[in-house]
Amino acid sequence: MKKLRKVIEIIDPVYVMEGAGVKLKRSIATQKLDYLDPFLLFDHFGSDDPEDYIAGFPMHPHRGIETVTYLLDGVVKHEDSMGNLGILEKDDVQWMTSGSGIIHEEMPRPYNGKMEGFQLWVNLPSKLKMTTPRYQEIKSSRIPEIKSEDGTIIKIIAGEIRGIKGAVNEIFTDPTYLDVTIPAGSSFEQSIKPGHTTFAYVFQGEGTFEDLDPKYEENETTVHATKLIIFGDGDYIKAKSKKQPFRFLLISGKPLYEPIARYGPFVMNTREEIEQAIEDLQNHEFVK
After folding, report:
1. 3-state secondary structure of 53
2. Which architecture, in CATH terms, is 7-282?
3. What is the pLDDT of residue 200?
4. What are phi and psi of 69, to 5 degrees?
5. Nearest to 165 by CA among 184, 183, 142
6. Most buried among 16, 181, 214, 228, by the most CB within 10 A?
7. For 33-80, what is each residue's pLDDT tens digit?
8. Is the sign of the CA dihedral 189, 206, 208, 27 positive or negative?
9. The dihedral of CA 21, 136, 78, 115: what is its sign?
10. Which residues pair with 119 in a beta bridge?
11. Which SS3 state, helix, strand or coil, does residue 66 take?
12. Strands 102-109 and 57-62
């Protein structure tokens, strides 16, 4: 018999300033939730005021991780040490494997005065920490979309749903990354591989996730934007909307169960590896 995943924690994002002065809502990599193996960080950026984001993220390094940017509105210009130049626009995705080392910049620009999107950091296993960097830019036209009879829309950024594979593949942690919109009065059920770490990020409207942990004393709870929902283990999740549409990201991945040494944009397994990354950067040997 299939097991429904229980909600085990609900996280309120906190505001932080990053880059050259970008205001973000952060749910992973906070005092409340430091790490959700294999996910190292989750940010929600967005504002109608360009002063909140226009300074962007000038050239900065990464090693040992993958960064995933999903843009809902606005424009982001990307440039990196591998020679990649790219422009992310509405509903585009960037999946960057920093591996042994990459230096890049992400500079946002508003479109019709709006900017909104998400960034996720995914850990790399020790055997791939120093792999060759890779940059994937996926235009919205390449992201599969499923529309159910009740009007539910599922955008498949990564993973496989109903035999349809997402736009991003060949990622070690075997991730699923879905953008789900449920119209008022409808429901959504999704299988998830047992053992995979799973969370949802509600960013529009409100709805319910069924079969909560007994400490909530209910079989379901209403969750409204913006909240991050952590699920326990199981085979599937079920969500419902009520009086208004309900939109959330559903993200899962295979945990690594490895030690973490973290220093800003570097995530390795030991302190010595972090010190080597810093030394490489100082000696202009960071980009291999």
Report:
1. coil
2. Sandwich (2.60)
3. 98
4. -115, 125
5. 142
6. 228
7. 999 999 999 999 988 888 888 888 999 999 999 999 999 999 999 999
8. positive
9. negative
10. 43, 69
11. strand
12. antiparallel
CA distance 188 to 255: 25
Neighbours of 81 (CB within 10 A): 15
If we measure between CA atoms, which residue out of 241, 251, 219, 210 comes closest to residue 148? 241
Query: What pLDDT does residue 169 have?
Result: 79
Per-residue pLDDT tens for 97-117?
999 999 999 998 877 778 899
Q: Let me know: does 254 contact 38? Beta carbons within 8 Å.
A: yes
User: What average pLDDT values come out for the chain (288 residues) when binned by 10 residues?
Assistant: 91 93 95 96 91 90 95 93 90 94 90 87 96 93 94 95 87 92 95 97 94 58 91 94 93 97 96 97 91
pTM above 0.85, yes or no: yes
Residue type, 204: Q
Distance CA 94, CA 106 (A): 11
Closest CA to 209 of 2, 7, 9, 27: 7
The one-letter amino acid at 143: I
DSSP state string for 109-159: E-BTTBEEEEEEEEE--GGGTTSPPEEEEE-GGGS-EEE-TT--EEEEEES
Determine the Cα–Cα distance for residues 257 and 248; give it in Å rounded to an integer: 27
- According to the model, what pLDDT value does residue 48 have? 85
CB contact set of 11 (below 8 Å; sequence gap of 6+): 27, 28, 32, 33, 227, 228, 229, 230
Please name the residue ranges forming H helices in the chain.
271-282
Residues 6+ apart with CB under 8 A from 217: none
Q: Which of 224, 260, 261, 253 is nearest to 239 (CA)?
A: 224
Bridge partner list, 164: 161
